[in-house]
Amino acid sequence: MKNFFYFLCSSLLLASCSGSRKTATRPKPAPAATVYKPVYLENIEINSSTDENNAIKKPPKVNGKKDVPGPEYSSDIERINALQFKYGILMDKPVESVTDKKLLTFLDEWYGIPYRYGGGSKMGVDCSAFTSLFLKQVYNVQLPRTARAQYEKGRRVGQDELKQGDLVFFNTTGRITHVGVYLGRNKFAHASTSNGVMISDLDENYFEKRYAGAKRFR
Predict the structure, then answer these.
(1) Left, alpha or beta for 167 (phi > 0: left; psi -120 to 50: alpha)?
(2) Whose CB has fewer CB within 10 Å in the chain, the N or C terminal residue?
(3) Strands, E, within the chain: which ranges?
(4) Catalytic, out of 69, 98, 178, 191
(5) Distance from chain centroid for Cα 208
(6) pLDDT digits (tens, 9 = 90+) for 28-46
(7) End-to-end CA distance of the chain
(8) Which residue among 107, 125, 127, 189 is the active-site one?
(9) What CATH number does residue 121 fall under?
(10) Is-catalytic flag, 65?
(11) Of 190, 198, 202, 215, which one is the catalytic site residue?
């Protein structure tokens, strides 16, 4: 009887252990890794594509909205060409406001050309030849050849009235000896004896002391 009781207890214990193993909770599989997809300004997304041409998606067009460069952010700002950036900085203007392609092209063709007295080519140019070429090619305005003769023409304008394309004159030896083209925001382009064709500021000490006036030809 004692052996039977021992056998019964052992059987019940084994059955209990077996049931426990069957009902034991199995660990849940780890969730699939989430693909990280960063989102940037204006919903421009960068995908994990290996094709560089398809890696960047531009935001869709919005009906009724002009997608052109402006004072506010636009997706088209990335397409503003290198000349606008370069001369926007040199002219101290917002890049998106520098849109005169004739002016930009002329500046870039002549920027850095060395100074040569009496010169009028890309081998060397003096100040009045530069302004003559500038107004002729950009604004289709014919000018006299020398700075003094240019000063005698056109309509006088005050310094606070200056507009892009006006000529600014300087007295360096007791008479008109230097001239440049006003670009806006106090900047002007000119052929300097020291650095060739460049962009300077009317507030620079040298030019401020020698400023003689401005003329408008268009």
Answers:
(1) beta
(2) N
(3) 45-46, 56-57, 120-121, 124-125, 155-157, 167-171, 176-184, 187-192, 196-201, 211-216
(4) 178
(5) 29
(6) 665 655 554 444 444 433 3
(7) 128
(8) 127
(9) 3.90.1720.10
(10) no
(11) 190
Residue ranges making up the domain that contains 111: 97-216
Tokens of 76: 């088209």
Q: Which of 192, 201, 149 is nearest to 172 (CA)?
A: 192
CA distance 55 to 53: 6
Q: Is 30 a catalytic residue?
A: no
Count of structural domains within the chain: 1
Residue whose C-alpha is closest to residue 37's, from 55, 52, 21, 24: 55
Q: Is residue 23 part of a domain?
A: no
Is residue 127 part of the annotated active site? The answer reads yes
* Residue 118 and residue 126 in contact, taking contact as beta carbons nearer than 8 Å: yes
Residue 91 has a pLDDT of 85
Q: Measuring CA to CA, which residue among 148, 130, 100 is closest to residue 200?
A: 130
